[in-house]
Automatic annotation (TrEMBL):
This is maleylacetoacetate isomerase. Keywords: Phenylalanine catabolism, Tyrosine catabolism. Pathway: Amino-acid degradation; L-phenylalanine degradation; acetoacetate and fumarate from L-phenylalanine: step 5/6. Its EC number is 5.2.1.2. Belongs to the GST superfamily. Zeta family. The gene is GSTZ1. NCBIfam families: maiA. It comes from Microcebus murinus (Gray mouse lemur). GO terms for molecular function: glutathione transferase activity; maleylacetoacetate isomerase activity.
Amino acid sequence: MQVGKPILYSYFRSSCSWRVRIALALKGIDYEMMPINLVKDGGQQLAIIEYLEETRPTPRLLPQDPKKRASVRMISDLIAGGIQPLQNLSVLKQVGQENQLTWAQNAITSGFNALERILQSTAGRYCVGDEVSMADLCLVPQVANAERFKVDLTPYPTISRINKTLLALEAFQVSHPCRQPDTPAELRA
C-alpha cells in the first residue's frame, strides 16, 4: 500500500461502502480497498462523505444553497438512516428466514412512498436539482437493494428516472458492486 492513500474497508454489496466508493470516484480520489466481509453495515458513510466534501470540495456533493443542502441531508438521512437499516442482514436474521423478503419489501416500500413524494418537489435531473449530490449517492444503492428484494418500482417513477440517469455516470458504474475486487465471480459484470 502507498503511504498517504486513503484505505476503504469495503464489502462489495454494502450500501454504505458503495456510497463512499461513488464519492471517491466522483472526486477523483485514488484509494486502497481492503475487502472485508461485513456482518453489519456501518453507519459512518455520511460522515465520511461530509469529511470528503470538507477536505476535497470539488465537485460539490452538498449544494451551496442552504435550502438545497438541507434537502440533500434530509433525503440522505431518510435513505441511510430510515430505509436501509431495516433490511440489513442483522435485522433480517432477527425476523426469521421465512419473513425476510416480506419484511424487506415492506421497509423499502414504506420508505420509497415518502421518498417519492419528497423527490417530486426537490428533483431536477437528480435528487435535488441538476447537480449530483450526497442524496444521489444514497439513492442508487437503495434502489439496487429494492431490486434485490423484488420491490415493484412502478409506483416510483421519479426514483426510477433519477436512478437510471445516475447509473449512466462513470462514477456510479466503476463503484458498482458487480465491479469490486471481492465480488463473487457469479455476480461480476
